[in-house]
Amino acid sequence: MELKVNGSTYQVDAAPETPLLWLIREDLGLTGTKFGCGLAQCGACTVMVDGLAVRSCVTPVEGVVGREIRTIESIESDALGQRVVAAWVKHQVAQCGYCQSGQVMAATALLQRTPHPSDGEIAAAMTNLCRCGTYNAIKTAIHELAAG
């Protein structure tokens, strides 16, 4: 199978039902995408597929063949991704940091399609779990990014 990840094309040999997460981490060596729950509940494994935030732990690789996959390793390759990371640092969002690659991916996907999200749109898009409870800092950072 051929996968497009972070602007590069890779030939991978995997069963069609293999979760995308395992190919990203094990075959491609991109370990910024984390394994959390394995049930698409926590969001630590969030990547973007064609600009949409998806949970890679339950996304079969056969469903993303020929689509553009982005992981946290490529997030600063565009201006919005750079701004999201800078806002995360400014507002000290990351504490333990484990969930933050997924949080950054979800926030970037949200802001790409909704540049000025409401509180409701932020809540609907940012369903990733954070055991450190940095939700207020995440919302503040997203609002600041939306303001310009």
How are the SSEs ordered, and which strands pair?
Elements: E1 2-5, E2 8-11, H1 20-27, E3 46-49, E4 52-55, E5 68-70, H2 79-90, H3 100-113, H4 119-125, H5 135-147
Parallel strand pairs: 1-5
Antiparallel strand pairs: 1-2, 3-4, 3-5
Helix pairs in contact: 2-3, 2-5
Structure description:
There is one protein chain. The termini are far apart. This protein folds into 2 domains: 2-73, Roll (Ubiquitin-like (UB roll)), CATH 3.10.20.30; 75-147, Orthogonal Bundle (DNA polymerase, domain 1), CATH 1.10.150.120. The chain contains 5 helices and 5 strands, in the order E-E-H-E-E-E-H-H-H-H. The protein has a 5-stranded mixed β-sheet with strand order 2-1-5-3-4, covered by helices on one side. The protein is an alpha+beta fold. The relative contact order is 0.16. Helices cover 36% and strands 13% of the residues.
Task: Summarize, please.
This protein is of the alpha+beta class. The protein is built from five helices and five strands. The chain has helices at 20-27, 79-90, 100-113, 119-125, 135-147; strands spanning 2-5, 8-11, 46-49, 52-55, 68-70.
